Amino acid sequence: MQNKLSRRTFLKGSAAGVLGLSLLGSGAGTNVSLGAEATEETLGTGNLVIAEQGIFSAGGTVITSDGTFDVDNYYTSREGSTSHVDHANVYYQIPAEQSGLPMVFLHGYGQSRMGWMTTPDGRQGWSDMFLRMGHSVWLIDQPRRGEAGQTSVAGTITTEPSDQTWYTQFRIGTYLEGAFTYNEGSQFPEGEEVLDQFFRQMTPDTGMDSANGDQNIDNTVVASAVAASIDEIYERTGQDSILVTHSQGGAPGWETALYTDHIAAIIAIEPGAAATVDTDEYNALLEKGIPVTFYYGDYIGEEYTDVPAAAMWAYMASTADTFTEAYNAAGGNSTVVRLPDEGITGNSHFMFQELNNDVIAEHVETWIQENVI
Which residue intervals of 119-269 are DSSP H helices? Predict the structure, then answer.
């Protein structure tokens, strides 16, 4: 277990706003503890008090080069050297008023944990919202991404521009006559500064040969590291975790169930696809009795002729229907939430960063309360 660094930290409005801080001791981890300043006024409306926070790595492996390390030429010698690679990096916060299970957030393609922490226009992200609801939050940078960039696979990162491609793929809008457009009724915050912040979230995968158009993400490497993170969370808290995945993170999310017994539920936000029925991943989910829910936003379906990615997303969402029908028939618990059917409209692939992200977070919390023991 890590050494801990004691702190008093009081956060107002957003977890980024620190009102008071004192440091004692040393170590890689942090222990944010409440002092006398944590009065009832501090705990009032609009304030968020963090009891503990920290960062750790989990999973991964160590690779070793051939030969013997030459200490006399230590700066250039690489023989007999080791490298710690392919781990997850986890930033966590535990609220002073804790009442729910830990929530583990796994980002999607081209993203990092930042996407859960804020919005392009600077409002609260889901991590703050679920902290306020009483959950500890554990935000993962998956292997070969963000602060977990150390890799065993040498990728080649492309510098080819692609903002317009992903903007269209994410169903935010499209790009016409030299300008980004928004889908009708869009909940995505607008403005050039907002788009600048959104596109600067994009983070390359250090193990991906993206210069050759190859999105070779190793789901097993990611899933194993996520499972190690969840097991570490269990060791620290004694609780199983709710795993929240997004997009590309959905595939390793299903596989994670093969490697840990401590998943309380999976909330899949627009995964690329559901787990295929009768695969090892599907059977592990079913055998372990893991409740599953899928969330999909707006502008999905062939009727949206002005949304280029709408039909493709309709196909991907159909895999959730196939999964849910089979899973429930076999005694499992799965639901598919299409937000427009709930009266929540205008959401893209990034529903957790949009103007009504609080409404959707509350919907998710209701599902948790009704389905997760």
Answer: 126-132, 163-169, 192-199, 219-237, 250-256
Q: What is the Cα–Cα distance from 65 to 72, expressed in whole angstroms? A: 18
| Confidence (pTM) | 0.88
Q: What is the mean pLDDT of residues 324-345?
A: 98
Residue 334 sits at φ, ψ, to 5 deg, of -140, 140
For residue 324, give Cα distances in angstroms to 12, 86, 317: 40, 32, 11
235, two tokens: 């060791």
Instruction: Supply 44's token pair.
Output: 């009032």
Each residue of 259-284: pLDDT tens digit? 999 999 999 999 999 999 999 999 99
Is 219 within 8 Å of 88 (Cβ atoms)? no
Per-residue b/e over 210-246, b at no fewer than 16 CB within 10 Å?
Answer: beeeeeebbbebbbbbbbbbbbbbbebbeebbbbbbb
Share of the chain above pLDDT 70, in %: 87
